[in-house]
Amino acid sequence: MKQQEQYLQDNVLNQRFGVNQPNQVWLADSTELTYGVNGQYKVRLSGALDLYGRHLIAHKLSETETSKAKVQVFQRAFNFAGDVHPVVHTDRGSACTSGTFNNFLAQHEVTRSMSRPGTPYDNAPMERWWNEFKLRWIDRHAKPVTYKELVALVEEGINYFNQLDRSPARNDLTPAEHWNEAV
Fold first, then answer.
1. Which residues share a beta bridge with 42?
2. Among 36, 46, 113, 133, which residue is least crowded by beta carbons within 10 Å?
3. Tens-level pLDDT at each residue, the chain (183 residues)
4. 137-145: which pairs have CB atoms within 8 A and are 24 or more residues apart?
5. Which residues, listed in sequence order, are joined to residue 61 by a DSSP beta bridge?
């Protein structure tokens, strides 16, 4: 038996994406971003998305997707949200099935949920967030040449999507306004 198999979880969320308050369900995933003159450098952007209002509550850029990076993202999420115990839904990547990550989450008394193998729809709101972030933000700006430029572009984009992007699905509120209205 592989070590990581000890930390596989059922799909508790089971594509039930309707929530009525913050901190009920957090989704997590990462996406690849590139920078450099020819886009030759790659980094991973990891994030934790509160399903309520699609508010990205924490994120981190790192060279690769590691359990350490996931722990840092979720430490930031708990620092932001306080003493909460959401369902945390992830894929089955090695960072999310690691003992380090799962032991950290157990300390916060969360309910774990994992997508079924080969089923990206199980994490559809997070996948959509990354897709919109790339299509509506990253792809509409000049390709960052330096890491510093990439960091600035990512921070500006996350600020835009959390603080400025209004949606009829949230009564024309931004994710932050929608989230703050409920807490």
1. 34
2. 36
3. 344 445 667 777 878 778 789 999 999 999 999 999 999 999 999 999 999 989 999 999 999 888 899 999 999 999 999 999 999 999 888 888 888 998 999 999 999 988 888 777 888 899 999 999 999 999 999 999 999 999 999 999 999 999 999 988 888 989 889 888 886
4. 137/161, 138/33, 143/34, 143/35, 143/39, 144/35, 145/35, 145/36, 145/37
5. 45
